[in-house]
């Protein structure tokens, strides 16, 4: 019987793995590769802050799972994982409904021989009072588009006004990690673009952006030599940066810090902390940690079931020689997908599996068109600090590498060419 590999989650890692396995095991008939996701299309998660600001049109940069499956010899099923039967080696998928509430795809079970869970992470609001009710999150394309529409609505209402009142908009972003920092810079750029297109009742200087961080500095997970320049650049752009300011409550009109400071905001974004999806918590006896991540061995197999693998943000993978886990970063998911593409082939052949060792190639932070800051790490160069145009080019190359893994060199080159041509015929900002 053909070995059945089921991959749950079509994010960057899961989609890259399905594509690699389809091109090798699926094409040869060595295995039947199935990708399951709750959506029909994929967009690279590190780009969601650009979708939220409107500088990226998600409809143009999305990838269709059905088409990708056909082109790369794997199968796709629409569905959201809701349960697991380890004894029978089956996963349960919840029913999918259309916008009218009618059942589109029924609940069902899917059998597997090897199961790979790559469902990513969601934002962790740490149970902060009012956060879930009054803040927007940027975990999915729909959430990013919802933020963009609310932002645009503020400008359209102001544009239609007939009074001489000075219009303004205030945006508060909780969390000065990569998402929060990049969103703040992208929104500053959006304010100038919207004014340039005639929506100038709200002047760029009247978009008040506040970035709030509970820790002592921005980009706490990255070296200080990156965080320092980023902090200075944000302040030059007019972004108010508050550190050592933990948010204790969110209301419809404002955020309140633990020190009692009130920060008024018409738009509020929570971008602090992550956790794995709640359905993973102790699912059918698998070991999970306090943020619902599946505990895995260095082979990326779950600690209590060798038939189940997990990787990316939803997995707690130990770093040998340290007391820390692999950080939840895109480069880690890419490395793990590459390893699993080899491991699953070896597993079918009955051979020993390799262990994953995280390699940090550095970090890059984009500050929209204004700047980029980061460091590259390698065996020959050590750690090299980058700023400005060069850092921006390396940042863009990360997305091109992701496209290369999915489309190959020729199609990626065509996409780059099409993007360059389209710049002259389309607005620089999505205006609807």
- Unreliable runs: none
Give me the count of strands.
Answer: 27
In the CATH scheme, what's the topology name of the largest domain?
Answer: FAD/NAD(P)-binding domain
- CATH top-level class of the largest domain: Alpha Beta
As laid out across the biggest beta sheet, the strand order is: 5-2-1-11-23-22
Structural class: alpha/beta
Count, helices: 11
Corresponding CATH superfamily of the largest domain:
FAD/NAD(P)-binding domain
Separation of termini?
A: 51 Å
What summary fits the major beta sheet? 6 strands, mixed
The CATH architecture term of the largest domain is 3-Layer(bba) Sandwich
- Beta-strand residue fraction: 25-35%
Mean pLDDT reading = 90
Number of domains: 3
Shape: globular
Rg calculated over all Cα atoms: 22 Å
- How helical, in percent, are the residues? 25-40%
Verbal overview:
The longest helix is centred in the middle third of the chain and has 20 residues, at 141-160. Helix 1 runs parallel beside helix 9. The protein contains eleven helices and 27 strands. Strand 17 and strand 18 form a beta hairpin. Helix content is 33%, strand content 27%. A six-stranded mixed β-sheet has the order 5-2-1-11-23-22. It is an alpha/beta fold and 432 residues long. The mean pLDDT is 90.
